[in-house]
Amino acid sequence: MLKRLVPAAAAGAAALLASLLAAPAQAAATPVVMFTKVYFDSPGSDRGGNTSLNGEYVVLKNTTSKSIQMERWILRDKTGYRFAFPRFTLKPGKSVTVRSGQGKNSSTTLFWQRKWYVWNNTGDNAGIYRGSDLKKIDTCSWGSAGDWTNCK
């Protein structure tokens, strides 16, 4: 009887292994804060005026049901330009726009306070990092086509 059980058990184990390997890869978890849009090429020529600078921006969304305190979180490009979030709470399901130029922060818009552009029109990579441990939360990349990209 033992001789009949061993092949049956081996066949069962092989079938289980095959089904696990054939299962579709599990989708990556949605980040707690994610990029939804990057407008990397502001309208008009890039002459550095504040209106033009503020036409360059990223939109980040809280995907959770809890408020997220973002003080000391970091937004950066691949070159290393860094925006350190001020004391700021991103409410559940809400978005914040981070504009490159100068302005007064609000509950929906933050300003990098730069005097020149951040995001490369020829392609770049944006990353958001949690402040407490600088863990990468989400990224968005784009090439040279268009003026903006949806990040999903």
List the helices and strands and how they pair.
Elements (H helix, E strand, L loop, with lengths): L1 H21 L10 E7 L10 H5 L2 E6 L5 E2 L4 E4 L4 E3 L4 E2 L4 E5 L9 E3 L12 E6 L6 E7 L5 E3 L2
Parallel strand pairs: 7-8
Antiparallel strand pairs: 1-2, 1-11, 2-7, 3-6, 4-5, 4-9, 9-10
Number of strands: 11
Tell me the β content.
25-35%
- Percent helix, as a range, is 10-25%
| Sheet with most strands | 5 strands, mixed
Shape: globular
By helix and strand content, what is the structural category? alpha+beta
End-to-end separation in angstroms reads 56 Å
With strands numbered from the N-terminus, the spatial order across the biggest sheet is 8-7-2-1-11
From the alpha carbons, calculate the radius of gyration and give it in angstroms: 23 Å
Name the helix and strand elements from N-terminus to C-terminus, one letter apiece: HEHEEEEEEEEEE
List the uncertain runs.
19-26
Mean pLDDT: 87
**Number of helical regions:** 2
What does it look like?
It is a single chain. The protein is of the alpha+beta class and 152 residues long. The chain has two helices and eleven strands, in the order αβαββββββββββ. A five-stranded mixed β-sheet has the order 8-7-2-1-11, with no helix packed on it. Strands 5-4-9-10 form a four-stranded antiparallel β-sheet, with no helix packed on it. Strand 4 and strand 5 form a beta hairpin. It is globular. The model is unreliable at 19-26 (pLDDT under 50).
